[in-house]
Amino acid sequence: MERRYTVVRYFAYSLEYLLLFIIESTPGLLPEIFGGKPMLLIPAAITVALLENELPAMFFGTAAGIITDLAIGQSVGFFAFTLTVVCFFLSRIFREYMVVSFLNASAFISAVSTGLIYIYFLIFRVFSGVENALALFASHYISRIIYTIAAGIGLFFLNKAIHRGLR
Amino acid sequence: MKDFFASKNNKILTFTLVALIILAIFTAAGHNWLSTGFNALTVGLSSVTAAGSEQIHQKSYDELKEENEKLKREAADLRAKLVDYYDLKDENARLWKYYKIKKAHKDFELMPASVIRRDSADDFYSFTVDVGTASGVHAQDPVLTENGLVGFISSINGVTARVTTVLSPDLKAGARVKKTGDSGVVSGNTLYADDNLTTLTKIDANASVEKNDIIVTSGIGGVYPADLVIGKVSEIKYDEYDATKYAVIKPYEDIRNVTDVVIITDFKSKGEVAKKITEGD
Q: Among A21, A22, A25, A141, which would you mutate to test the B interface (most chain B Cβ atoms within 10 Å of its Cβ)?
C-alpha cells in the first residue's frame, strides 16, 4: 500500500513539473513583475528535495534541471548539474540534521534559488561578455529571484500537501 | 574520498553526474534527440496553451466584450456556413501575410510557424516555434514577419526551433542604411531590449545616418538575404567608453509579442560566402 502511494506521489510530482513548465513557457500566461518571470522548476525541485529521500530528491532535481536547460538552450548543462547535486545534499541535510518547517524551507528556497540564478547570471551573462550586465541584473534578475522565491513558498505548501496526502 | 564511495546513494549520485556529463557533451555537439523527444511530447500541449493564452491575454476585457457582441451578431448570419469558418479565416490571414512576402521575394522558400513558448529565463525575448528539422527548417535560418526581420534560428530539433531575436546581443546581422548605403552590424543591446529596440553598431565615423532612416540587411555573409527591413533609426548615440557612433533602431514589429512568423529556409544567395570559401580551397 505504501509503495503504491509512493508511486502515485512521484506521478503527482511529475505532473506538477509538466504543468509548471507549461505555465512558465506559455507566452503571456504568467504576468511579468518588474521585468521578471519566475523559474518555477527550481523551487519545485528544492521543495521536493526537502520532503523526499536522497535518491528521489536527486532524480527530481535532475529532471527539473534537464527541463530547464532544454527550455533555455536545448542542451543539457548548468541547471541539470547544479540541481542534481543541490537536491541530493539538501535532502541529506533535511533527513539528518533539520526539520522541515516553514521557516527552514523558506530560508533554503530563498538561498538556493538566489544562488543558482545568480551563478547562472554570472556565467551566462557577465562572463560571456554581455554588455551592461549590471543593468540587466537590475531590470530582470532581481525581480526574477524575488518572484521565484515567492512561487517557491507556494510550491512548498503544495508539495507538502502532496507528500502528506500520499504517504 | 573512500568513505564517500562507501555509500550506495553517493555512488548513484556520482553515476548520475557522469551520465549528465555524457548527455551534456552529446547535446552540445548537436545530437538533439533528447530535446526532440522532450519537445515532441510537449509541443502539442504548448501549442494549445499558447493559442489559449493568446486569446485570453492579448485583449482587454472591453475588447473581448466588444468582440463577443460582434461575434454574436455575426453568428446569426453565419449559422448556415461552415463550422470551421473562423479557423479558415485565421489561416487565410496568416497565409496572406506569407504570400505577400513570397510575392516580394520570389527566390525565398518560406515556412510559416507559430510561437508556442517564451522562456522566462531569457532576457532578450527569444521564443520557440512549432516547426523543426522535420519541416525543412535549419539552424541559422532567418525569421521574419510581414513587418521585417525578427531573428534567426539559434537551435533546432526535429519538431521545434528556438529563435534568437534582433533584440539579443547574440544576433549579429550585416546591415546598411537604405538611403545612403552606409553599412554596420545590427545587434541587440541590454539597455534597449526591454523597449523593443536594437542597435546598428560599427558605423563608419563619417557615415550620415539620420533619425527615421530605414535599416535593411546587407546580405553580406550569406546568412540573411539582402534588403530585409529591420527597422528605422530612432536615435543616434555615442558609446560612453570609446565614443563610437551607433544608431538605436526601432523594429517595425513588436518582437516581444510576436505570435506568427515566417522562416526563410532557402534563398538565392544563401551560404554564398561559405561556397566561395569552399571553392577557394
A: A25
List, in sequence order, the alpha helices (H) in B58-158.
Answer: 61-78, 85-104
- Decide: A68 and A42 in contact? Cβ < 8 Å: yes
Q: What is the pLDDT of residues B232-267, one digit of tens each?
A: 999 988 877 777 788 999 999 999 888 889 999 988
| Number of domains into which chain A is organized | 1
Cell triple for B30: 548537436
- pLDDT tens across B102-158, in order? 777 778 888 989 898 887 777 889 999 999 998 899 999 999 988 899 999 998 888
| pTM exceeding the 0.80 threshold for the entire prediction | no
Name residues whose C-beta falls within 8 Å of residue A139's C-beta, 6 or more positions apart in sequence. Answer: A34, A35, B194
Which of A38, A81, A136 lies at the smallest CB-CB distance from B20? Answer: A81
Best of A41, A55, A76 to mutate (most B CBs within 10 Å, chain B) = A76
Using CB atoms, which residue from A27, A72, A76 is nearest to B23? A76
